[in-house]
Automatic annotation (TrEMBL):
Stated name of the protein: 3-hydroxyacyl-CoA dehydrogenase
Keyword Nucleus attributed: no
Subcellular localization, as worded in the UniProt entry: Peroxisome
CDD domains associated with the record: crotonase-like
Key words of the record: Fatty acid metabolism, Isomerase, Lipid degradation, Lipid metabolism, Lyase, Multifunctional enzyme, NAD, Oxidoreductase, Peroxisome
Reaction catalysis annotation: a (3S)-3-hydroxyacyl-CoA + NAD(+) = a 3-oxoacyl-CoA + NADH + H(+)
UniProt pathway annotation: Lipid metabolism; fatty acid beta-oxidation
Major subcellular location class: other
Length: 703
């Protein structure tokens, strides 16, 4: 038997084990081996039932993603054909699902007549996260098994379903008492089926999926979901495939599903999402960090500052079961911070995401103090105080005095020089930047700022800790704003300048959200705080360089006390969270344009897109050239997970490749020539961009 499969016959049962570590991905070699084993069992008269299981405990995490978009994806035996053959075997087939059955793994289980899991089993169809849909029968078999509404919810969300829920839905027929007993329980189940002369495949609970649906079900579902789908293709293809399950016989539905899958696989959106998938795995590969690099133990964490950011950071560690001490200067500020954390957890309880017991367990891991001496035993200390260099340096001087040798000292600065912060300590090798994004307990991005003297084991430890608390850690070098905020500067600059030239904040934001960005520049500034943006910019005007008159509009709003949502007025007016255009801002822009001698004119949407996005891209390419970012895909992760850039566009660097690097360069050169002194000042192509285009390159890389 093939090395990718284990095969044995045990008392009338053929036990077929998937043995392609680490996750039994269903690439062509494993598909071929599985088909061979199933045919062998089907043709053996001594075998009366077949049990398919994971030889090392895990069933199957899905297709081999590296095959997508290549001929191997449908190399014989292709997965749809293999699973169709499984449904036509003459003997009952039982899937023993250990740990995971995801994507193609769940489709394999659905092709089996019977399914048994264990207490830790999780199942799901997450193909939508790769811009795909289940393409091996999932969209046709799952609605017939659990009903249309439940099946759609699983496929559109891509969420994993726990064992007890899978049992209640009918995805699983039984649960073994423990993972260790799964295979034995599956064999017992198979023998029961033989003894009772059970059919090879049981009747489907929803054999006619459309039968009990309300007449307008699909119409209503589409109307409800459209605002979430925006321009994403995959949800619409899932929707069409499930409609086919309701309208067509199974075999015709499978053919329709396959055609839709191939459409999705060939799409730019799926290509972009697969790029993001691999980017997340590449981000952990850092020069100088090896598997053998020693890690420092992190058993206790301290956070300086119990405000919104500090409290959110602390929650990440409490969520992971790590005790945290919060330090504040004033008792009332500390009390407010702990109360706010409890209130945030209480919202999760109300939404059913936490239990009351879990809330209390997490709060029990949080303690407060007003005394730096209480941080003496912390393994990791994260400073989250006001964004001013002198204040942060003072905090680090105190940490240097009280923290034990080997403690990692991290700053949450979003823009300041981590080397200057480290320099005030006697242990710069222990200092690192950990830039959490707000709200810190929700946002997945963690910019890990590798300072000049940061020790390799400190970097390795914080990268591992970032993953432990559910973040996507991305390494950045030291510069103003690191990767994300440095790129934000030219992006936001063009948005401000375009309003001075004649656009409105709403027009600029609408162009950006039309690309499916979570929000436009001005909505983002109003949400984060016009005051916060002003103070950061004001503290770093020297780093921004050149003439900063483009941001006069933001400066004026700050001076007027219009700080955004929290004051009810910023670039927009607010009633609660309801946003309205404010023509006083347009009038203010007109006045400032006159004072600055900026001609006003109608601005079209294409110019807004090109100026904002091309300068964002240009800055990212410059960061790559400088070595601040290790790879272009790291930049994409920062902007997807920290700034709401749509994942189905792949991030700004991947988006540049889809637009064409030559077109980006031509656009920058065009604005440099047509925007007068302003264009000459700001529209300078990154030298790396020029080299890439001159070399005929189509991907963003160092050359």
């Amino acid at each position: 038997m093939h090395s990718l499969i284990t095969y044995q016959v045990d008392d009338s049962l053929a036990l077929i084990g998937l043995a392609r570590p680490p996750v039994n991905a269903l690439g062509q070699p494993l598909r071929a081996a599985l088909l061979e084993a199933c045919e062998l069992a089907n043709g053996d008269p001594s075998v009366r039932a077949i049990v398919i299981h994971g030889a090392n405990g895990l069933f199957c995490a899905g297709a081999d993603i590296t095959e997508f978009g290549s001929p191997a994806s449908f190399a014989a035996p292709d997965l749809p054909g293999l699973l169709l053959r499984l449904t036509r075997l003459d003997k009952p087939v039982i899937a023993a699902i250990g740990k995971l059955a995801l994507g193609g793994g769940l489709e394999l289980a659905l092709a089996c007549g019977y399914r048994i899991g264990e207490t830790n089993t999780r199942v799901g169809l997450p193909e939508i996260n790769l811009g795909l849909l289940p393409g091996a029968g999932g969209t046709q078999r799952l609605p017939r098994l659990i009903g249309v509404a439940a099946a759609l919810d699983m496929m559109i969300s891509g969420a994993q379903v726990a064992a007890d829920r899978a049992l209640a839905l009918g995805i699983l027929d039984r649960l073994a008492a423990s993972p260790e007993q799964l295979l034995a329980s599956a064999c017992d189940y198979a023998r029961e089926l033989i003894a009772s002369a059970a059919p090879v495949r049981p009747a489907e609970p929803f054999a006619e999926p459309a039968k009990d649906l309300e007449a307008d079900f699909f119409e209503r579902y589409c109307v409800e979901q459209e605002p979430r789908w925006k321009t994403r293709l995959a949800p619409r293809l899932v929707f069409s495939a499930v409609q086919a399950a309701c309208l067509l016989p199974l075999e015709q539905g499978l053919a329709r599903e396959l055609a839709l899958f191939k459409q999705a696989e060939a799409s730019r959106q799926s290509e972009a999402l697969r790029h993001v998938f691999f980017a997340e795995r590449e981000a952990g590969k850092v020069p100088g960090i090896e598997a053998s690099t020693a890690l420092r133990p992190i058993a206790k964490v301290a956070v300086i500052g119990a405000g919104t950011m500090g409290g959110g950071i602390a929650m990440n560690f409490a969520n992971a079961g790590i005790p945290v001490t919060l330090l504040e200067r004033q008792g009332d500020a500390l009390d407010r911070g702990l109360v706010h954390i409890r209130q945030t957890y209480a919202i999760s309880v109300k939404r059913g995401k936490l239990t009351d017991t879990q809330l209390e367990q997490r709060m029990a891991l949080l303690s407060g103090t007003l005394d730096y001496a209480d941080l003496a035993d912390a393994d990791l200390v994260i400073e989250a105080v006001f964004e001013q260099l002198a204040i942060k340096q003072d905090v680090f001087r105190q940490l240097d005095r009280v923290c034990k040798p080997g403690a990692i000292l991290a700053t949450n600065t979003s823009s300041l020089d981590v080397d200057q912060i480290a320099a005030v300590t006697a242990r710069p090798q222990d200092v690192i930047g950990l830039h959490f994004f707000s709200p810190a307990n929700v946002m997945r991005l963690l910019e890990v700022v590798n300072a000049r003297e940061t020790a390799p084991e400190v970097l390795a430890t914080t990268l591992k800790m970032g993953r432990t608390i559910g973040k996507i850690p991305v390494v950045s070098g030291v510069c103003f704003g690191f990767i994300g905020n440095r790129m934000l500067e030219p992006y936001a600059r063009e948005a401000h300048r375009l309003v001075l030239e004649g656009a409105t904040p709403a027009q600029v934001d609408d162009v950006l959200t039309g690309l499916d960005l979570n929000m436009g520049v001005f909505t983002m500034l109003d949400l984060a705080g016009v005051d916060v943006n002003f103070l950061v910019r004001d503290a770093n005007r020297a780093a921004i360089a050149h003439d900063d008159s483009y941001c006069r509009l933001g400066d004026e709003l700050y001076s007027l006390g219009r700080y955004g949502q929290k004051t009810g007025r910023g670039f927009y007016q607010y009633e609660g969270r309801q946003r309205h255009n404010d023509y006083e801002v347009v009038a203010l822009a007109e006045r400032l344009a006159g004072e600055l001698h900026i001609p006003r004119r109608p601005v079209d949407d294409k110019e807004i897109h090109d100026r904002c996005l091309f300068m964002l891209i240009n800055e990212g390419i410059q960061l790559l050239d400088e070595g601040i970012a290790l790879r272009a895909s790291d930049i994409d992760l920062v902007w997807i997970n920290g700034y709401g850039f749509p994942a189905h566009l792949g991030g700004p660097m991947h988006y540049a490749e889809q637009i064409g690097l030559d077109r980006v360069l031509a656009g920058i050169r065009y604005f440099r020539q047509t925007l007068g002194d302003y264009g000459q000042m700001w529209f300078t192509p990154a030298p790396l961009l020029e080299r890439l285009v001159a070399a005929g390159k189509t991907t963003v890389e160092r050359i």
